[in-house]
Amino acid sequence: MTTPDPDGLLAEQLLRFTRRVHRIQKRHLLQRDLGVTPAQSRLLRTLAQYGAPPRMADLAQRLEVVPRAVTTLVDGLEANGKVRRVPDPANRRVIRIELTEEGRAALRELRAARRSAAEEILAPLSPEQRDVLGGLLDTLIDGTPAGTC
What we know:
This protein is mainly alpha-helical. It has six helices and two strands; from the N terminus they run ααααββαα. α1 (about 5-30) packs across α5. It is elongated, with a radius of gyration of 19 Å.
């Protein structure tokens, strides 16, 4: 007789939940018809975190991807008018990436899509359950066992 594997079950639940979150977010993105892929969405959100336009290498490092992947994403976003390449004022050989007004508008729509997806995902939970989930997620994100600090 085999013993139950509670961690295996939990791992499967986490994977299923992650897939559900991605599926719902993708649907909410598609409904807004922004013409932005999930990967492009992530790049736009990351780009918005910088105070000044970053280099592609900076974006690649922050996204934890190879620079070529960033080039492909920027190409698509530039073709859609959401970002533009600009020369670095201090070194004209360096190219920086900046959001356009259309890119800022897309970010606002992306944020709204993520909020509506989160509302759908969290709908079955009571406010108290949401508070507990928030605390548990903070612990998992930080990687610090509860009760230590």
